[in-house]
């Protein structure tokens, strides 16, 4: 309806005194539209016919009810509100960029790696592990295995490749899986060499989601022991874009990833990497 009227998201946002991010979230189905907000939009779009207004309000109400059935809405016992918000954004992203300095990103993990990570370093009990593993597997299926899915860009610290989560055999299986994923046309894996020394990735791991829709703001997800957060303010996300730009310049090129995996396999087979359980 907005497009038919020739309006941009920014114009609608200014008219309603909303942020452009709010308009984007509503149009992408990330955030449900309230009854009052829909009424205001319809008035600004010149929709006054009572039958049409009532029909659209009923559709919006049905959408709000359906939203309660979105993936992971029943996982509130193991997921924070911020994590569920992030997954809602992730489902609609056109480009996902992740910097991982300590462990492999969840989208790249094998079940054995996930099990070792959650049951060991994170001290997760068996019930919690099972539920978190279900979420991780579902995300992988929808995002990394989907045809026409988002472009995925991963920057991995070289140490992540030899940090033997679950022991050498689990890690070797993980490296094989990582190599297979890196050959997919929608996936780019680049390694941050230890020899690079100080680099912007050392500021911490993060995920940046980007969207092709006009006016759609980028979203960054941050997670550590203190908690997690989702940010879409440009003054925040622009800083993480800068980090990605620096890593794009300094990280090893993607065509060197296979060699880095081979080198990591050699280290693991020689038993040079400490086991972490």
UniProtKB/TrEMBL annotation:
PROSITE patterns assigned to the protein according to its UniProt record, in alphabetical order: HTH_CROC1 (PS50943)
Coiled-coil segments on the chain, per record: none
Domain HTH cro/C1-type: 1-51
Source organism, top-level taxon: Bacteria
Pfam families noted in UniProt: DUF5753 (PF19054), HTH_31 (PF13560)
InterPro entries named in the record: Cro/C1-type_HTH, DUF5753, Lambda_DNA-bd_dom_sf
Protein name: HTH cro/C1-type domain-containing protein
Organism: Pseudonocardia ailaonensis
